[in-house]
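Consider the following assembly input.
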Amino acid sequence: MAHKNVIPFGPQHPVLPEPIHFDLVTEDERIVDAIPSISYVHRGLERLIEKRDFIDFVHVADRICGLCSFMHAMGYSQAVEEIMGIEVPERALYLRTIWAELSRIHSHIFWLGVAADAFGFESLFMQSLRLREVVLDIFEATTGARVILGVCKVGGVRRDIDAATLKGIVDRLASLKKDLEELSPVFIDDYSIRHRLVGVGYISQQDAYTLGCVGPMARASGLAMDMRTLGYAAYKYLDVEPMVETTGDCYARCLVRIREMFHSMDLIRQAVGKIPEGPVDLKVKGAPNGEYFSRVEQPRGEVIHYAKGNGSRFLQRFRVRVPTFSNIPAMIKVLKGSEVADVPNIILTLDPCISCTER
Amino acid sequence: MRSFTMTKTVIKNLLAGPATLMYPKRKRTFTPITRGRVDNDINKCIFCGLCGRRCPTYAILVTKESKEWQIDRLKCCACDLCVEICPVKSLSMENQYAPPATDRTAGVYKLKKADEGGAETDKS
Amino acid sequence: MGEPQEIIPIEKSDLVGVVAQLSAEGYRLVQIGCSTLESAYELNYSFDKEYRFKNLRITVTPGEEVPSISAVYPNAFLYENEIHDLFGVVVRNINIDYGGTLYRTAIKTPFSTENVKLPEPPKQKAEAPSQPTDKPKHQGEIPGVQRD
């Protein structure tokens, strides 16, 4: 009769970028059950709408998370703009798309680096973060800050990018693409990495759908679910293709993220080719009265921003449902039946962004 | 499955040198629009208080009677809203970061306009 | 621009039946959200199938119990525990019930009707949408931080 042990994983662990806790019930080396527990960084951001104007709240929405910062501001602005019926100028839509795709690239490169660190390949981690600096320098040259951008606002964007800078961005991304093309075969073909990732952490397509998986975790199990095809911002003018793999294990999730990076660079090139001239923002008058759910595709999946206003300058309710929150039940299913030594790897392929989860 | 896939990158990095900078011995080059810290040209300031009302973190304090303008640099999040709204354009965003401080009150930076028209600064 | 979104108000007693029917049709659960009204709570159940977004809405008074849908959708437990911890809405029969320890906050149920102060809508004058009655008076004269 095997003896059951409870091993705590987290909140402090070298592999986790942010604190989350799992109680793993194990029998010998196999995991039988997992119980998650959160609430280490709960800041109560949703009640700050009582104190900040709906226009100033965009700066709070930017600071919900560091890696997905721009897309939170974009989702919030979209929700408020839909309630008020504001038509954002076209150039602002294209600029938002360019910054959003750059956010996606830098988040995926960061994930690749942290994943390499998780299975002990330190030099690959350093190399990935070295390449990520190129994207952060582009952010600093166009918006003024490296991580928390602060350029999205209700009614458009706060800064413009001129044509020469746009061409410079495309050229820098072309040279980044060459470097990434040298780096990705390491993740795809190297013997020790494949040994750690293939066949580990499997979830079937049916389970992924009913348990509410979103983002690269769902796309790696065969579900073609990508909110960019809804056509918000400038995606209706570009051609977006969800990257789908069918194997459903950790290796497939790694492949999905690598392919999404290259696809994002292609989308930026298309957007820079099609961007029209014009104003970048609109003067906002009045206050929101109504409600709307805005859906945006973040690097980690589908995020829902719900805003409700009743005519005063303060919103009545604002709620964010982040993709990591939706992936946690699926993660519990994946953990059951795996080995203890694979747990850090599996939890990292979920790409946990806990500061978003417990705003 | 191949082995030694990183060799080419490793040799390239060995010959090219480190990617990091020996900060603070060598300073970093900032871009012209980097948001570092807020500064005020006190001679142009009219003490209307718009910047203090707009600041999302309540870092700016303006007293009209004694002609003082104060910013707590540790609370400032460099969002650039005060610079945008200043009607006489006396506020400016410099591209160097504010220097580090060892306790919370050391971040407060006060400016007072003297009545003769000059400016006195009082960094506390 | 926006996509078509349906919001369907239903009764609390029909909830589990309608949810089971949606699950049979192939909808996935997207989120369960809650808003505080004057003296009631409004629960939103959101479902999605092939990018069509559908919402069910029920209204409960403080103290009323809501049946759980975790028998139909096992991943609902996180949302229902969150509603219980932050709003104080009692949900019966959740499959994994944390009993109030999912969110450990300094005050219990920080979003409940006693703790949340809703903004007042503007007075119905000719055009008065930018005259809120409860804007906090934070001119520059008040030093430091309001940690309220």
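Chain B has a mean pLDDT of 79. Ask yourself how this observation constrains the way the partners meet.
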